[in-house]
Amino acid sequence: MIRFFKEVLSMEKRTYGGKTADIREHLLRQIEMGNFPRGSVLPSERELTERLNASYMTIRKAIGALVEEKYLERIPRVGTFVSSQIPEHKVQRQLGIVVPAWTAPENSDFVMYASEAAEHEGWLPKMVSVRHWEDKALLDAWSSFDALVCFAPQPVNQMPQDLLEKFKSHEKPVVFIGVPAHHFGLDTVVGSMELEIGIILDRLAAAGHTRIALIEQCTLMNDQQVVDVPTFYSVWRKKIVETLGEPAVADLQILVETPRFELPHRAIYSKVRSLGRRLPFTAIVTRIPFLWGVTAALTDLGLRVPEDVSIVSMGDRQELEFYRPELTYLKVPLRDHAIQAFELVKERLENPALPVLYTMITPEFVEGKTLRTLKK
Question: Residue 52's domain is classified under what CATH number?
Fold first, then answer.
């Protein structure tokens, strides 16, 4: 965190002419902008002297003024801290929006929606990218910001116990998005995966489809394929077994391993392309992030959507309305996730002793042009 402050202060090394008021104004501006969050330690007076090109006494007087105004707190032999008690009308509360470090349209969309929700309530949104649960940026965010909304960078069951207990303490609101983290005692906004895949399978069945392929990403563990979203897979598998019998599962499951540090499109494209033109299914269910690989492979095979094969997707992206042919898909709106997450943040702030807070987002089925009704 101190290194972060060094970077902020070194962006522009300017001379303040020895004016205490100028130094005070500069430091206060950094606090108001969220660069020095509530509860954070201020760089030492000697370091500020060097960074701001001002005298030691000028820095000390400026900090003293902010201490008197209760923006800062001095703790002898420890340091100077930004006060945790600064009222909202003086300094905005800060919402940390935690997303995985790798880019994805869904992550960017959620950051936009969460920022919109935060600014609407007068909060200052701050985006934080993390690689895994033990990434120091995550703990720094929890320490620095007034609340967090979090896209899990890894499965929740892999979270270190000490971090889990910190989040469960509700010392600060922490709301998880899109994963059933409430099972671990964490406030959560999520859809129902069972409901979502069930709606899709029912729509396909109503259109006359029984041979429905599932294209999903998997990981090889102990010589076994482990699907990334086991709930989707288990509900789909149960439906296929009930309709066509156990042997049909092997023909209709298309599980693809994606190399590390690579998007899934290429691996999925190669897998679908290898099936050839005589597909053993009439419809495909897959998630939006895999769609480009699927449609590119079908196009290069000379197959048409939906004339030769139907596709129903799952997911939510702002760009989806511009896909052609127009997609038939089910979404659990990310904007609703963001709005409801902020509602849980406010509720938790008002009453930290509440039991686990949980909100389910209602899915929406979007009629497009990629689902064909089969002749009966």
Answer: 1.10.10.10
